[in-house]
Every structure is written in structure tokens, then in C-alpha cells.
Amino acid sequence: MDHDHMPGMATPPPPPSAGGGGMEHHSAMGMTHMTFFWGKNSEILFSGWPGTRAGMYVLALLFVFILAVIVEWLAHCRKTRNAGDFSGGLMRTVVHGMRIALAYIVMLAIMSFNGGVFIVAVAGHIFGFFLF
């Protein structure tokens, strides 16, 4: 039986290119890193953002740092609220949902595999934990 022509069978992926080692995915728009890298030329959260400008990269790092601090603040709010009635429980649920959503956004930023983003995300969580 010829396995290359069986219906429903997917073709195997092409072998990694020489020099790339299979660690990066090349697309029409650019390259997605699959290992940590250093540099300002990155895409964080949105296509084309922050781009190649150093000022926009610093703004992106500041944004991730602030998000991580807010996640820690919301975690603190969750611990200090009294959920004695329905509205208190509802408010805790909303705060929990916001905390989880922002934590996932920070995680997605880290998945850009940019070393600077990783460092500021961890620093933001540390600073937020210290503050609250």
C-alpha cells in the first residue's frame, strides 16, 4: 500500500533549513523566535509592535512591567476583600477574572521570547508583590 497517497494523511513538515536548526519559524511577515533572544527588534502582543524603534521597545517593556504590577495588585485585592454577601462575591469574581486575563496577557508577552520582556515581567511581579 502506498502511504504517500492515502486519503486523510497529512504530509510531513519540511526538514529544517541548514543553519536555522529548526528553532525558528519563518513566515511571510517575519520570524518568530523559539528560543530567548536579546534585542529591540521584536513583536510583543501585536503584529508590528513595538517594531524596530528603541523608544517603542522601551514603551513595550514599561507596558509589560505595569501589567505585571497590576496582576499582583489584583491578587492582593482578592485576598483582602470580604465576600460576605452576593455583591462582594460578584466583585471578587470580577477582580479574579481581570487578574487572570492580565496574567495571560503578560504570559503572551513573555512568549515573544525576548529576554528583556522576560526580565521586566518578572521584575514587575516582584515589585508588585513587594508593594502589596
From TrEMBL:
For this record, the Gene Ontology CC terms, alphabetical, are: plasma membrane
What positions belong to coiled-coil segments? none
Does the UniProt entry include the keyword Ligase?
no
Look up and give the membrane topology term.
Multi-pass membrane protein
The record's annotation in Pfam families points to:
Ctr
Q: What is its main location?
A: membrane
Cellular location of this protein?
A: Membrane
Q: Which GO terms describe its molecular function?
A: copper ion transmembrane transporter activity
> Which keywords label this protein?
Copper, Copper transport, Ion transport, Membrane, Transmembrane, Transmembrane helix, Transport
PANTHER family referenced in this protein's UniProt entry, alphabetically: COPPER TRANSPORT PROTEIN (PTHR12483:SF129), SOLUTE CARRIER FAMILY 31 COPPER TRANSPORTERS (PTHR12483)
Q: What is this protein called?
A: Copper transport protein
Q: Which organism is it from?
A: Erythranthe guttata (Yellow monkey flower)
